[in-house]
Amino acid sequence: DEVILTVMRAPKSYTREDIVEINCHGGILALREVLDLVLENGCRLASPGEFTKRAFLNGRMDLAQAEAVLDIIRAKTGSALKLSVEQLRGALSSQMNRIRKVLLDILSLLEANIDFPEEEISGINSKEITQKLGAINDELKDTLDTSKQGRIFREGINVVICGKPNVGKSALLNALLKEERSIVTPLAGTTRDTIEEIIDIKGIPIRIVDTAGIIEPRDLIEKKAVQRSKRHISLADLVILLFDGSKRLAKEDELLMRKIKRKNTLAIINKIDLKQKIEEDKIQKRFSRVINISAKKLKNIDLLESQIANLVYNGELSHSEPIMVSNLRHIEAIKIAQKLIAEALNSLDNKLSLEFVAQDIKDALGHLDDILGRRFCEELLDKIFSEFCIGK
């Protein structure tokens, strides 16, 4: 192949090392031949995440920023991508470093007072320290409050569409996808297995499953489809139960309503473009949320999307948080750090020895250092970077 070689000198490269990048034409065969030639001449394949790991170890980025690289690769919506890019730019890292600096200043004053009790140490002011720790405690709490939304943006939710045969489940999936993914026919039981897609609703990655509308299986294939549908429903964060508005409620509708009564459910009456025969009052008695749509004519689909988003966020949808934590490792570390700061405040309020306050602050600092990667073990790095694609 004819290629372009780009030489990047340390420290102005991704890993802060000397790097040579080979740009080939896009054909898989050409790429494979060039890679084989490079490997024959003394190179080796990179380990998963090795370039980002090297960037971290060489101080180009901290561990929270390194983890954001993987989140950018995995982002399924614009909101998830924005959240990951902000973390890569250092939004979370800047906050943790700022808090860390305040805690270090407080700790140095406390330890000086502990080590030299006979001397009057300038700067010790219990009221001021209490105010600073209180502000940090509140800030960490506020950050934790964003974690639910953050994790939803990062991981998404599972939504299952279910209903008796021929109520329009596949048409609804196509309407939400804005493309024809499922086959739609007037014949009942066209969908004989689950169909899964990921869609973006108000920035939320929704893993949506169109289940087979089969109540009583006629053969082994349909039996397995029913079993798979049941499993998806049991794991769903939200169930969309679809009814055919042009027909009266049937035994199958009643059966499905009983089966999902303990699930978070959104009842949808479809086919409002046809003459309505369904007993809507019976559905409203069972479910607090009922929406009327026409999947075929795309009526009220936007209303359905808004209702899904409101259910996910309990009516508090927000994309404007300056810092939103989404990584479980970070969330757990912040939780522990916040509890330790609260304990330090309690010790100050109860006029306990400064050693207790200092130890809590020291331990809190350790957990903030875990987020930034100031302290780490090889096992943790191996776990984090093993999830990366090869190389990056």
Could you characterize the architecture of this molecule?
The protein is 52% helix and 12% strand. The protein is α/β, with parallel strands linked by helices and 392 residues long. Helix 13 (328-349) runs antiparallel to helix 14 (354-372). The two termini are 23 Å apart. 32% of the residues are buried.
Salient structural properties:
392 residues; alpha/beta; two-stranded antiparallel sheet; flat
* Strand arrangement across the biggest beta sheet: 4-5-3-6-7-8
Main sheet makeup? 6 strands, mixed
Record field, number of beta strands: 8
Alpha plus pi helix count: 15
Helix content: 40-55%
First-last Cα distance: 23 Å
The assigned structural class equals alpha/beta
Shape: flat
H-E order:
EEHHHHHHHEHEEHEHEHEHHHH
Mean pLDDT: 86
* Strand-residue proportion: 5-15%
> Could you tell me the radius of gyration in angstroms?
28 Å
Oligomeric status:
single chain
The unreliable regions are: 182-192
Q: Brief overview, please?
A:
This protein is an alpha/beta fold and 392 residues long.
What's the topology here?
Elements: E1 4-8, E2 19-23, H1 28-40, H2 50-57, H3 63-74, H4 78-89, H5 91-115, H6 126-145, H7 147-155, E3 157-162, H8 169-177, E4 195-201, E5 204-210, H9 220-235, E6 238-244, H10 251-259, E7 265-270, H11 280-286, E8 290-292, H12 301-313, H13 328-349, H14 354-372, H15 378-385
Parallel strand pairs: 3-5, 3-6, 6-7, 7-8
Antiparallel strand pairs: 1-2, 4-5
Helix pairs in contact: 3-4, 5-6, 5-14, 6-13, 13-14
